[in-house]
Amino acid sequence: MKTRLAVAALLCSVCAWSVAVAQNRTAGNATLTAVPGIIVGHFTYTERPTGCTAVIVQGDAVGGVAQRGGAPATRETDLLNPLNLVDKVNAISLSGGSAFGLDAATGISRWLEQRNVGWDTRIAKVPIVPAASIYDLPVGNKPSIRPDADCGFKAATAASSAPVPEGNVGAGAGAVLGQMGGAGHAMKSGLGTASISLPNGLIVAALVVVNASGEVIDPSNGRVVAGSRDEKGALIDLRQILRRGGSVGGSADARNPGEHTTIGVVATNAKLTKAEAARLALMADDGYARAINPVHTMADGDTIFTLATGRLAAPVDLSRVGALAAEVVSDAVVRAATQATGIPGLPAARDLK
What we know:
Distance between the termini: 51 Å
Strand content: 15-25%
Order of helices and strands: HEEEEHEEEHEEEEEEHEHHEEH
CATH superfamily: L-amino peptidase D-ALA esterase/amidase
Number of domains: 1
Number of helices: 7
CATH class: Alpha Beta
Radius of gyration: 20 Å
Shape: globular
């Protein structure tokens, strides 16, 4: 009897916590900038489209990264290894343009340098700006238009603490998903963000750019939100096709590397060590697996950064922070699909009947 009562009490506690979390997802600013000290700016090249997003820390944050995709376009990820020296991050650069787009981080660095922000080497303060890019060069048929240092500088200049715009903006402007179904069967994706605030003051938030080869699934009901489409434009459930051993005829294999990628940032006001920030990134990455299928393929450069500002004085349970991080990442993935707007040849989830 005591065991049953204990189990019942635990279940009630979990249910109450889940309800509180669900309520807090929509309270006030439910984007990445809900974390005090984090500001975000976009710059979008509408003529292609492509763009970049600057996530800037007002002060310092401890950073981490999880990079599990097979075809990454990244910069300064080794610096975030807990074995290495630098333990503070000033900004994160997310962009389109494949490896070319990593140059956006140079513009963000220039913006920070002008404000005397960076790692103090005594000779100069060197801004620490890890970066990741998605492959969006085919979108718009103007691959020569891609994010550069000027894009990064303008995104940083536009950064604010206001709720973050979502959809076809910044690094999500050229994002596509469902490319595993082959040419002509993909859909428009974009940038999404979500946050959770708990009564004890803990805030965990995520911003994600979904450019996946696979499909986006809503973890709350298991349904495909957006992805590959059949000849009639209806969604294909890749899970069922792959289980049957069927072919989807797409490009998500080792013969066509680097053509996809989901990238993002998780921020929290918790105080974490560099090793804990790295562990947080690994747990946050589970949010990708909950909402994207398949994920971490050889053609996806999936990467997620973490930022811990340390502004919450109270100690936190890292396991709970990580669990919440996975939640907001999966929420942000779904929003990246549902908040996108279709462009010619690439309908969005909101266009499906």
